[in-house]
Amino acid sequence: xxxxMLLELKDINAGYGDLHILWDVSLGIERGEIVSLxxxxxxxxxxxxxxxxxLIRPFxxxxxxxxxxxxxxxxxxxxxMGLSLVPEGRQLFPxxxxxxxxxxxxxxxxxxxxxxxxxEWVFNLFPKLKERKKQLAGTMSGGExxxxxxxxxxxNRPEILMMDEPSMGLAPKLVLEIFxxxxxxxxEGVTIxxxxxxxxxxxxxxxxAYIIETGRITLHGPAKELLSMDEVRKAYLGI
Length: 239
Ligand SMILES: Nc1ncnc2c1ncn2[C@@H]1O[C@H](COP(=O)(O)OP(=O)(O)OP(=O)(O)O)[C@@H](O)[C@H]1O
Ligand SMILES: [Mg+2]
What we know:
Elements: E1 7-16, E2 19-29, E3 34-38, H1 45-53, E4 60-65, E5 68-69, H2 75-81, E6 83-86, H3 98-105, H4 109-113, H5 115-125, H6 127-131, H7 142-154, E7 160-164, H8 172-187, E8 191-196, H9 199-205, E9 208-213, E10 216-222, H10 223-227, H11 230-236
Parallel strand pairs: 3-8, 3-9, 6-7, 7-8
Antiparallel strand pairs: 1-2, 1-4, 4-5, 9-10
Helix pairs in contact: 3-7
The structure holds adenosine-5'-triphosphate and magnesium ion (MG).
Magnesium ion is lined by residues 45-46, 88, 164.
């Protein structure tokens, strides 16, 4: 078996207790790519991210990061290696201010040692956060909260940033801003694994994409090709 991608899943079966959700999920992400995982409600997108980040342990199959088998590694070790997750629903600390939320994201040794550098980096990426350092997260708008959630995920200087539906609940203008940010992150050298229900916006910025239906990958290929396929247009683009 040849493992050559930055992140690679091989035949992952996973779920919750007796509940089998993911069936032989295989996918790969190369360094520098934006790759999307698309699917409808309950398809298994978040479960896939949980398996990659170590929040759940697969029943079978393997996960490789930088050619290393990380399937059995605890969460913190994966973060330390450069895998970062921006979770579904943002999961900020509403009673904490911006800087405190960013501190909560910088819990690895690597991040603690380089905290000031990382802070400067994310403040450059998100100048609005810098202007409002002391604002409580709970009082920010949805778009600003999503920016903060992304910034927190970046505090560990990840090689790959996984994002779970970053555009959820945002007005179209803010969705655009989030997707522009994702493209900017790629230019900064961060590899992106994007989970989205907003298939059009995700495919527009992605190199490749996978489609998951009831826990199985049913389609994958270059984003441009998927955008032009009838079955994708009907099921996910509403065309
Ligand atoms: N903690 C859990 N315990 C039991 N079942 C769960 C749990 N979390 C998710 N599920 C089930 O697993 C299946 C896949 O859920 P998952 O959250 O991965 O879907 P999703 O593709 O992320 O959906 P959405 O777009 O709604 O976020 C669903 O049937 C869901 O009900
Ligand atoms: Mg989900």
